[in-house]
Structure formats: structure tokens, C-alpha cells
Design goal:
The protein has about 140 residues and is of the alpha+beta class. About 40% of the residues lie in helices and about 20% in strands. The protein has a 5-stranded antiparallel beta sheet. The structure holds zinc ion (ZN).
């Protein structure tokens, strides 16, 4: 008899597995409904706002890196049309090669220009980089 009760309890437990509210830190059981994820609307809102905040923070960090890159390229280029610099100088100023806004391949020489907004560079080899300002149409370097 005792054994039977134990088996029934176990079976019931398997059908209704404990699931907790998705909000971090909330341990409220939400297993009473199959698709229920949160214990209340308040926790759903807090959870969704936390995700949004984390995403904005991620984007904010990338935007800062892009702006720093742009500022460095702009400063090194000055009023010149193009300028040759070194990887060492760029990284020394805080340039981050991991971030860029877009890439343009020049038509003839197939240089790969990597941009941070309207300032870009391409690798000329041997640790050197040519910096340019954004170009359009026939202003495109060869
Ligand atoms: Zn909750």
C-alpha cells in the first residue's frame, strides 16, 4: 500500500515539473500553466527591461569603440587626402581593429577599405595602413 502511494506521487511529480519564474532571483513556481514563464506581469516587464538594458549597454560599448576609431583616423589624416601610418601607432592611440561600420573594396586595385563611419583605412602590408576619408562615386581611390 505504502509503495503504491509513493509511485503515484512520483508520477504526479513527473507530469508537473517545477519551473521557476524567468526573472533572475525569483524562485516562484510557474509550473501551474504549460507556457507560463513568469509569476506575474511585473516580473515579465522587469525581465524584458533587463534584456533591453543589456543590449543597449552592448551597443553603447561598440559605438564608443567606433567613435574612438573614427576620431583617431580623423586626427591622423588631418587635412591630407591620404596618410600612411603604422599598426603600432594606431593601437598606441587606442584604435580597435575589431570594430568597423562597413567595408568598401576599391574597383581597380581591390584594396579593402575598412571604415569607422566616414574614415577608413586599408592594410598596405608590413604593418602599415593607409588612412582615407569617405569617398563616393568617382572619388573612389584606385
Ligand atoms: Zn517572478
Amino acid at each position: 500500500m505504502k509503495k503504491e502511494i509513493a509511485a503515484n506521487t512520483k508520477e504526479a511529480g513527473a507530469k508537473r515539473e517545477y519551473r521557476k519564474c524567468l526573472l533572475e532571483g525569483c524562485n516562484e513556481d510557474v509550473s501551474d500553466r504549460l507556457n507560463k514563464k513568469f509569476c506575474c506581469d511585473g516580473h515579465k516587464n522587469v525581465h524584458n527591461n533587463q534584456i533591453k538594458t543589456r543590449e543597449l549597454e552592448e551597443i553603447r560599448k561598440i559605438n564608443i569603440a567606433l567613435k574612438v576609431n573614427r576620431r583617431i583616423l580623423k586626427r591622423l589624416l588631418g587635412d591630407d587626402r591620404e596618410v600612411l601610418t603604422t599598426e603600432k601607432k594606431l593601437t598606441g592611440l587606442g584604435f580597435n581593429f575589431d570594430f568597423s561600420t562597413h567595408v568598401i573594396i576599391s574597383k581597380r586595385k581591390k584594396h579593402k577599405f575598412i571604415f569607422s563611419y566616414n574614415y577608413g583605412y586599408y592594410n598596405t602590408g608590413y604593418g602599415k595602413y593607409k588612412i582615407v576619408k569617405s569617398f563616393y562615386g568617382d572619388e573612389m581611390p584606385e
